Batch of 4 targets.
Target 1
Amino acid sequence: GENVEQHPSTLSVQEGDSAVIKCTYSDSASNYFPWYKQELGKGPQLIIDIRSNVGEKKDQRIAVTLNKTAKHFSLHITETQPEDSAVYFCAATSYGGSQGNLIFGKGTKLSVKP
Amino acid sequence: EAGVVQSPRYKIIEKKQPVAFWCNPISGHNTLYWYRQNLGQGPELLIRYENEEAVDDSQLPKDRFSAERLKGVDSTLKIQPAELGDSAVYLCASSLHGNEQYFGPGTRLTVT
């Protein structure tokens, strides 16, 4: 089955700097890679996702890149703000219907210092 | 549009007692998921429903856990009897035909 590794487990940056979180997956059949942000006491919030037919996707200050050959994908946050502080999870699956279930990484705790 | 609703938000019980969690998915979402999230870990799937059918319950500990989604809308997850190791956050998520999943706030269970 699918296995997702996520690094680093903790990340501390200064406000305004960029943050990068990396994930690797094992199942070459996976074709959908969402990223979730989880604040304390809340459920995971979908912030961006990418499908295997796309190499990069941007949404304002966040972007995700995918390297299918190397089986890794990354989350990039630019111009970080204190409200970006949270735990971020990557996940992988075969997209749509009953083809597969989301397999999550163990999370990255991002701290943005003012 | 209302998000995924879960109740209760917090529950403290003694071991060997029963407990139940309730979830109401986003309106129109036919796929419903129950996850368990242990401290410092990512969510792990317990069961997935397509409408009222449980299509994947391979990770559900069936000796003590049960779930139902009788009318294909809201769902209940039950543990009986609870054990100390069941302390975790139980998350419900929903999606439209297995696409993007949206999570509820979760129920934090503490078993003493």
Note: The interface with chain B takes residues 34, 36, 41-46, 49, 89, 91, 95-99, 101-102, 104-107 of chain A (CB under 8 Å).
Target 2
Amino acid sequence: DSGVTQTPKHLITATGQRVTLRCSPRSGDLSVYWYQQSLDQGLQFLIQYYNGEERAKGNILERFSAQQFPDLHSELNLSSLELGDSALYFCASSVEPGGSGNTIYFGEGSWLTVV
Amino acid sequence: GDSVTQMEGPVTLSEEAFLTINCTYTATGYPSLFWYVQYPGEGLQLLLKATKADDKGSNKGFEATYRKETTSFHLEKGSVQVSDSAVYFCALLQQGAQKLVFGQGTRLTINP
């Protein structure tokens, strides 16, 4: 158990809908990351927050947004869902905002299926 | 930009065989290197890491040595078990960067 908690574990929704994925980082971690794992794209970095502020943005679509709240939990919002958004979405956390000495721990992921 | 290349899978071995999964990277400076493992139906788990050249990371019988001269971080285990069947990801974290760069993953199947 990494200490990173994600909900829901599984989600099935229709095209055009909107979903929210939730993440609680490990105790004491200030940085939260979101990754998408799909069969064709592999593991892709989406976005990172550190202590409530956006720190880095990767391959995140405009239909997707995220935020980190004062209690450090984070939410990833996915809207106008398309079939191609079906994937495993990982949240990860770390103490530091980045850097080579950092260790990033992953949650178990939220499986999203768009039908 | 930074990149990680893993040996293509899938890899199938018999129990107690020796395992090597190759990983090479392209990066400037001195990134940290990681191996993550994803067991069937589960999330990513950190397996081991190394933060500087010649460091050896080890865990659960797995080892990997950070080789700067060959830009490699190959994963090895002397005697694999059926329970080691999983997908293994090599990754790097660049100095001052915020994101892990992953290889494409190598699926390992161990037969009894």
Note: The interface with chain A takes residues 30-32, 34, 36, 42-46, 49, 51, 89, 93-102, 104-105 of chain B (CB under 8 Å).
Target 3
Amino acid sequence: GAGVSQSPRYKVAKRGQDVALRCDPISGHVSLFWYQQALGQGPEFLTYFQNEAQLDKSGLPSDRFFAERPEGSVSTLKIQRTQQEDSAVYLCASSFRSNEQFFGPGTRLTVL
Amino acid sequence: RKEVEQDPGPFNVPEGATVAFNCTYSNSASQSFFWYRQDCRKEPKLLMSVYSSGNEDGRFTAQLNRASQYISLLIRDSKLSDSATYLCVVNRDDMRFGAGTRLTVKP
């Protein structure tokens, strides 16, 4: 069955480069979440969509981070002018209601 | 102070041991609670929900104390395959994760 997919799975960027990370949620899932997970840490909340509406972006660490979900399905997390501290795994999750979240495999971003 | 705090671990236990993890949360408006399991370099997966009445799923028992804002997970008769990081998760409108507790079960 189709789960949450993310692309690319791995991304190496030079400092200052812009990156775009894609998330395809499970079909029909209304809610979509983005998390940042540093090595040895739990996932840190970044932002949350319900359909196309971004209801909470309080976790975005700076204005270099931007997320969108224009049609209420696929979402893109964009990071502008990447910095070394942006290196992490970026996890996307979707849920039908506000309960179990299903996670994608993540995108491992390395900024050199 | 983080919104969700867990025992940092690591817990290293022999097969067959019973191990307990604790978690506290700071926001009393939190509505639902979960334990997720995360294997190395994999995504988190739901282990079980946590209810005020306590709930059990095989060797796993989860409990919630709303008054103390405390959640626990008990694993009985631990198996090698239980080795993973266990994440405490608290939900309001969005999910807040603890940093995780690493468990290693040894033969």
Note: The first strand of chain A starts at residue 5 and ends at 7.
Target 4
Amino acid sequence: GDSVTQMEGPVTLSEEAFLTINCTYTATGYPSLFWYVQYPGEGLQLLLKATKADDKGSNKGFEATYRKETTSFHLEKGSVQVSDSAVYFCALATIQGAQKLVFGQGTRLTINP
Amino acid sequence: ETGVTQTPRHLVMGMTNKKSLKCEQHLGHNAMYWYKQSAKKPLELMFVYNFKEQTENNSVPSRFSPECPNSSHLFLHLHTLQPEDSALYLCASSPQGGGFTDTQYFGPGTRLTVL
């Protein structure tokens, strides 16, 4: 079945450090890929998405590129801030299960000043 | 800022109680979802409604009973729950059914504790 694997957390970085959170997937067909973020005490918010191979999603300084050859969608940011502390979820949706978002287990990110 | 609201935000109930969770979306969407978020587990899709009709039940035990009276409101009725049902229950909505590129918009969740 479809699945998403994210790097284990928690991840702790200093402010202005470079961030990478790895995400790989297994899916039939060509899924859409998403990164959601969950700030403390809140629900999930869409951070960015990509719907076809080689697309790059970007938002708030975060980027992720849909790599079909490596089945990956790694999240990156060049300089993190304390306000980026949150839990990040990678997810996919396939046309076969159109409304079924399959989530990774989440990666908790803490940024220290 | 969110167009999806959930009440209550916190709920403590005994195993013999009956309670309901409420979700309301103000985005004009036609699809609504219930998810369960447990510690150290990926989010689990429970139910999907499209245009008020249930289109997905992800093998959820019958002690969870969803209701969707219109496209803006979604309820989750709870009865005779177990302690392992303690979790954060998230509601979401999306513009239309069947779109695998659609973005789902989430509410803040109800933190449920079953004693």
Note: Chain A is about 0% helix and 50% strand.
